[in-house]
What we know:
This protein is mainly β. The protein folds into three domains: about 5-95, SH3 Domains (SH3 type barrels, Roll); about 100-155; about 165-280, endopeptidase domain like (from Nostoc punctiforme) (endopeptidase fold (from Nostoc punctiforme), Alpha-Beta Complex), CATH 3.90.1720. About 15% of the residues lie in helices and about 35% in strands. The protein has four helices and 25 strands. A six-stranded antiparallel β-sheet has the order 20-25-21-22-23-24. A five-stranded antiparallel β-sheet has the order 8-7-6-3-9, with no helix packed on it. A hairpin with a 4-residue loop joins strand 23 and strand 24 (about 255-260).
Amino acid sequence: MPALDPRLTPARPDLAAAHLKGQVEAERFVEPVDRQAIAASVPIRRTPEPHGAVDDQLLAGDIFALLEEKDGWGWGYSRADGFVGWVELLALSEDVEPVDHRVTALRTYAFSEPDLKSEPNLLLSLNCSFRAGRRESRYVEAIGLGWVFTPHAAPLDEHADDFVAVAESFLGAPYLWGGKESLGLDCSGLVQMALLATGIPVPRDSDQQEAHLAASWTDVTQSPTRERGDVVFWPGHVGIMTDSEHLLHANGHWMDVTLEAFDEAEQRIREGHAPVRKIFRPV
């Protein structure tokens, strides 16, 4: 049996999710209870403390499968991409609304009223999701969140056409380890959010994305030329080609989403870390 990925395995010596019974050892196995993110973003932390290291985020509307509560924190996993960790329970609702819309703008406010002069409740990022309620004027009610400008949202089955254009809209967004919202995201968060906006779900981390795309995209690692839409993987890093010569990536060198000459970025990463490992092209 292959080793289980600890990032995606909700199991500890004392507690594990019920679906893992027979695969892991634990003192007890429990069925998760779903809770829903009602904050714009919710960090998934390694430890139940405000400064615990962040590995991932829930976006508004995402479901967290709760396995344990402790002092205002909950341990479990994201149903969006499976990541395990701790979240603050204040950011989750016990009432779960089946979502049917998502935010399509890079970011937009959820207002307290269907009026641009009303107080905003939240600043939502691309791919936040909600259940649509009433419609008034040019606004749609995002149940539990507020009122969203209708042109900034769409039904879940409506997708963007070009994931590269979506990724380009993040240009200049600050780098944030574990982030995947417009106010801060990392390299794999950028790729995950851009592809999700076009209806292509992929895993959270770059090594997981590399393995996932290897199963369905074309391997062009040995090709002498690159094209718009090629996804380039290094060990621990990933970026997107916007044309044959330029790479878009969220990176810790410039601390933002940067567009730079691929040859310059490749040389810097190769000399400081490792060479390119794989390049995949959409089929």
